[in-house]
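Thread: "does anyone have the structure for this chain?"

Original post by V.I.:
We have the sequence but no experimental structure in hand. Need at least a predicted one for the grant figures.
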Amino acid sequence: MKRKNVFLIAVLFLTTALYAEETDMALFNELSAAYSSGFYPGAVEYASRLQSAYPDSVFAGRALVMEGESLVRLGRSGDAEKALEKALVLVEKDLVLIHSCRYWTGRAQYAQRNYRGALFSFFESCRISGTDGQYYSSAALYGARSYYALGRYAEAAAPFGYVVSNGSRFSPADYEEAVLKLADSYNRTGSYRQTTELYGSFPQDSLSEDVYGLFSIYAGDAYLGLKQYRNAFNLYSAVLASGQKKFAAAALQKAYAVSSEHRSEVGTDAGTVLAQAQNALADSPELVSEFWMRLGIDAYNRNDFAKTKQYFDSAGGSATDAMKRTMALYRAEITLGETDAAHAAAYLEKAEKDARLEESGSDYEAYAVLMLKYAALQGKWNDVKSYAAKIADPDEKTRYYTALAYYGTKDYETAVNIVKKITADDSDAHALALYARSLVKTQRISDALPVFERLEKSGKMDDAARLDYAETLLLAGKLSAAYDQAVQSGGSDAQYVAGLAAFNSRDWNKAETGFTKYRSASPGSGKYQQYALFYLGYSQYRLGKSGAAYSTLSGFADKYPGNELYWNARITAANAAVQNGTYDRAAEQAEEAVKTAPDEQSREKAVLLCAGIYADAGNYAKALGTLSPYTMQNNQFGMKCSYETAQIFVRQGEIEKADNAYQKIARTFPAEDLAEESMYRRGEIYYTVKQYGTALSRFAEYEKQYPD
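Reply from O.Q.:
Generated one for you, tokens below.
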């Protein structure tokens, strides 16, 4: 009915305009009638005609103000601002009109999102009129809105507070908007206490349900800011309990966050809240499943794996395939902790297949990363390489496992190239150790040592890496440093390396200690047992512990006849027995050394030792029998055997035989030092037995042969 009346009035206006005399007063009256009836297009038309026909009319300024307001109401804010700018010049002495003009200018600017300009206009409107002005309250509300839109929340609080304190002057919608924005402004400026006090001043039935629900969330945020986590949680939970679906998701998210991050203060598990909220979220089952999944992930990060599995189970059938794939990753890691890498890999492969994982999918890499890890833990190096090729952006741990795979397949150069990229900050001890080991394998000892030093300085060097460091120092000939590192490392192998470093330094006491500790720590099982036993015996020999040395070395030779140090053990055991005065044992070891010598030089050494042992034991026949096969050789060894034979003849008192043996040496090997020695010895033996004539003859021959 009202619309019909407006139409009739419009027709009447137009008809009147055609026939009536259009004086400025008549036009203004028509304008006022259209304006008062809410026919703003007509008001704009009459205002325009009045300004065109009577630009100097006393009604011109008021008409422009009315036109500006009408244009604002019609949504033509730009035109309105222009009209009101003209009006302001014409009504500069009329405070009431200036008040109106400023207010509607502000409204036009606000509509155009010129919030700074609007603030000035609303401020001027209020300043001119005072609190009694027609638009004062509305200007205060729009001023608050402008501050809020500009993010000037501290300044928005005061005018919003005015609206809240003078609610009767505003519509319910504007009033409730002011309540919410005032609370939000307090929160954004850290005035949390004011938010909670404001919330406490409103009974639940004083606001509409939706507004009170959002107000409660804001109040919960304020309690969170005040670190009153239990109060915050209670408010979020209350919104969930109210059944307001509009805010259920936001309230659940916030309740979940505060209960997860402040479990002890809240005292209620987020899972309990989620279970209670399922009815409110019945039409969003996937959202509920997502929160169950997130709860499970949080529990996993707390190492509460039982809760993790419980929450993942609760996600149930509403979980999307993407959620199932995500949960499978965490379940696989739990399986790894409970069993081993093989079981974890088998579970993950099946679970991801059931959840329709595709290699082209965005979540495939996460699967590949774990499968690569499980393959590495099982030593399946080719599988590691295969998965690595499918990972576009590997993290450092994945790079480490990939480098380990190349190391495991003896491609040490590739291992170096991969692992050196993840050792810049020395944070990953395993990567540094692998880098150093790989450098050693590529014979870059001098490059490996600084890497080991970096690892040691990081304070993260474990026993295995320290042992590798000691071994590398040993290879580099840094024996003292190698020993120091080895004794700091745990494990029996470290004792062996310490013993070896001391052995090569000829520190026989430390060597004996190291090898003894190694053998005691891993009797019969250590990979260096054979060598440790030999080096122990040799160290004892060098320390003069001839009895212990003989026992250790002969035991080594008896136990490990195929070892490359077998001959060394026999020959050293023979020497130890000699020192100990047990010539029969010495001869036994020496004879075995003769039989098993690995080369001719070693055999010659064993023959001479064996003959010497028999001679020292007074068994000259055995001694001569040992040497006899070699005295006919026309070489250095034959010469030495002949000389030793001559020496034995001397000890037997067989002077003539000794003289003949010495003479043979001098004639056969005239250029050798031993030939000169033999010539001299010919005279000496006769002189010793007081056959001075013969002695003088032999010395004369010596002087003639060797005049210098």
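V.I.: this helps a lot. Residues 1-20 have pLDDT under 50 and may be disordered.
O.Q.: and The two ends are 154 Å apart (CA to CA).
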